[in-house]
Amino acid sequence: MSRPHQLLELLGENSEINIVCHNNPDPDCLASALALGRISAAADIDEHHIYYSGDISHQQNRTFVNLLDIDLKPFEVTMVTDLQPGSLLAFVDHSVPGRNNQVPPDTPVDIVIDHHPAEDINARFVDHRIEVGAAATILTEYVRVLDIDIDAELATALLFAIRSDTLDFLRGATSAEYDAAGYLHDHADQDMVRQISSPSVTGGTIDAISTAINNRWTSGSVLISHVGRTTERDSLPQAVDYLVRLEGVETAIVFGLVDDSIHICARSPDPRVHAGDILHEAFKDVGSGGGHHDSAGGEITLGIFADYTSNDEQLLSMVEQVITARLVAELNLPGEMEGSKSV
């Protein structure tokens, strides 16, 4: 029995599914959750719910949710601790309780569909393919194999998710992404795809990107910068995606203060550098970090930094020194870094 049909069989044995997105969900996670909900409905599941934690702050993500009218509910821990018989817990685009989600560690999970590198995945049904470029690619395969009715909204969501997670097929795309996109193209609303692709940008995002440009430091083909303190968490991936295009740069890492955490984003087209491993090794004793060889992220709770000083300028200076020093050591960079200015 194929994996799509195994999933359908599991779904058919239950009456409810609770799909949990990772923190601050992106289009790949949201579209995958939407598709799993449609598959569940086809399996005659009476109720399906999509939960999220954090913020949907990226301009594209907000536009994505609004135009596609995705029904999202804020995540609460009691949702998973009080599950009744016949209720399933599912993860899409992430895989382990307590890692990039608010689900308590060791919580039993029924379904995992993911493409990110991870270990210790434990669920009744697992489809974990790190070789594909997007979780939406896997869910598109399921929709096709199971002959699920696909309307313009679902096709648009899956198509945009694949494009977004692969940077329009420039990052981590495989033949599976092209095949899925070819199938989805004829069903998708192309005007809606264009609207989602070109949302307005907030002033806070522009300010954060500008700060990252001004604070950039380089050593050889490596660039490290920060956006200072920002309320626009998603300005970090936008800043690093912009800076990695700088001539001579093969690896770019941008960090910043968001609420009570340090967020880090990395991009590395350089095949000699594994961005996920770099962030994991540099910060595994103080926070979390990881991802693919060319795209990765991390988060560190301010903790002792915030306890040491209430002065935001001093706090940022301390964070910059510590984060930069760890990255320089992990990347084994020689000598002093060169840059436009210091903070």
TrEMBL record:
InterPro entries: DDH_dom, DHH_sf, DHHA1_dom, Oligoribo/pAp-PDE_c-di-AMP_PDE. Residues 17-162 form the DDH domain. GO terms for molecular function: nucleic acid binding. Gene3D superfamilies: 3.10.310.30, inorganic pyrophosphatase (n-terminal core). Residues 220-323 form the DHHA1 domain. PANTHER family: BIFUNCTIONAL OLIGORIBONUCLEASE AND PAP PHOSPHATASE NRNA. This is Bifunctional oligoribonuclease/PAP phosphatase NrnA. It comes from Natronocalculus amylovorans.
